[in-house]
Design goal:
With 387 residues, the protein is an alpha/beta fold. It has a single domain, classed as Alpha-Beta Barrel (TIM Barrel). The chain is built from 14 helices and twelve strands. An eight-stranded parallel barrel has the order 1-2-3-4-7-8-9-12, surrounded by four helices. It has a four-stranded antiparallel beta sheet with strand order 5-6-11-10. Strand 5 and strand 6 form a beta hairpin. The chain binds D-mannose (DNO).
Length: 387
């Protein structure tokens, strides 16, 4: 039975939730990145050491790096991608030298996680993050106005997208743009609409098999470095776990995960098991995925979602929703890892006092405190019942 390390995402010194706050929440590990370093630049040893010392001074441990992003050059195999891969290798060397051993990254084209609403009202008075393909199609068809978009949506979605668009005033439009292209933390998306369209266009002609090859090229170069440095790489699945904007997304389903892990069969090439991302596709059987890929799971995000169909979902409370969290917990506890597995409560609602505060969407103090408390209790009860 592996130890499950309770961790918490921290966005660094500017995060309104401080390290002492996190200590009070009962987490012992920190999940963070050097967010001030532009995507693609090398993480220098001094910078990594400085952040590590700051975390340790607060009596916590830097458990996981989330994320060290791939540049769009690397993903599209164009521009100075070789130089970018060398910089990634150098960052890995430096991360290993400082002694950090788990790294989460993703291979979503153009954008990191995506939502259309950041403050959808939830029935208990809190607010939650939401994704609605009808709203997303509205953005694509009527705001981006990409000529390729028309072929991507069903007649039903196209119709709803138009109705949504007709009802939007200027503020509503700006909000939708902000939510999709610039709203979420940890993504470094500060696109103008033109830059966004140009970024999407770089993927023209790149289907999923071709995209997988680009990523395999990257993995062939970086996993050996990670392994030498003792760093477990853990890919984060696509969020949401289905195609958007016609871009090639290759880590959305259980089969995708199998194919992805097979690109480099080595324990240092592993998975961030994110129940919220994978769980938004009702066809993904999460307990079964733990059975299949458990030995490659190096990091866990526990979160729940409620989907009405596979393209509309709202983030639910951690123990409610599509994901059978008890079964997930039971399977995780039963893994035969010798190393401990860090997990974090991934997102939480905006609730209580946080409704009056500014903060990173999804990364509130109180909502995540509730999530962690519930998950901690679930873990304790599950372990005790297993004897
Ligand atoms: C959302 C997060 C993602 C994740 C990255 C990992 O809350 O889970 O932003 O950090 O996709 O690379």
């Amino acid at each position: 039975m592996p130890h499950l390390e309770q961790t918490w995402r921290w966005y660094g010194p500017t995060d309104p939730v401080s390290l002492p706050d996190i200590k009070q929440a009962g987490a012992t590990g920190i999940v963070t990145a050097l967010h001030h370093i532009p995507v693609g630049d090398v993480w220098e040893i001094g910078e990594i050491e400085k952040r590590k010392a700051q975390i340790e001074k607060a009596g916590l441990r830097w458990s996981v790096i989330e994320s060290l992003p791939l540049t769009e050059n690397i993903k599209t195999h164009s521009g100075p991608y070789e130089a970018d891969i060398e910089k990634y290798q150098q960052s890995l060397e430096n991360i290993g030298t400082v002694g950090l051993d788990t790294l989460c990254y993703n291979v979503m084209p153009v954008m990191d996680w995506t939502r259309t609403q950041l403050d959808a009202s939830f029935e208990d008075g809190s607010t939650a993050l939401k994704f609605d393909m009808n709203e997303f199609a509205c953005f694509d068809l009527h705001i981006l106005k990409r000529p390729e978009a028309a072929a991507l949506y069903t007649p039903g979605i196209t119709k709803k997208a138009k109705e949504i668009y007709d009802a939007l005033d200027d503020n509503g439009q700006q909000l939708l743009i902000q939510n999709i292209v610039a709203g979420l933390p940890g993504t470094d998306q500060h696109f103008t609409l033109d830059a966004f369209i140009a970024a999407v266009d770089r993927y023209k002609g790149l289907d999923k098999p071709a995209y997988r090859k680009n990523i395999q090229y990257f993995l062939d170069k970086v996993i050996p470095v990670a392994k030498k440095q003792g760093i477990k790489m853990a890919v984060h699945p696509d969020d949401p776990p289905f195609d958007i904007l016609g871009l090639p997304r290759i880590v959305s389903t259980a089969d995708d995960v199998g194919k992805y892990l097979a690109l480099y069969p080595d324990p240092f090439h592993g998975l961030t098991f994110c129940t919220g991302s994978l769980g938004a596709n009702l066809e993904n059987d999460l307990p079964q995925m733990i059975d299949r890929y458990g030995d490659r799971i190096h990091f866990v995000h526990l979160r729940n979602v409620r989907s009405s169909d596979r393209q509309v979902f709202v983030e639910d409370n951690h123990l409610q929703g599509n994901v059978d969290m008890y079964e997930v917990m039971r399977k995780l506890i039963a893994l035969d890892h010798t190393a401990s597995i860090p997990f974090r409560p991934d997102h939480g609602h905006r609730m209580l006092d946080d409704l009056n505060k500014k903060g990173n969407p999804g990364y509130t103090a109180i909502g995540r405190l509730r999530g962690l408390a519930e998950l901690r209790g679930l873990e304790l009860g599950t372990r005790r019942s297993l004897g």
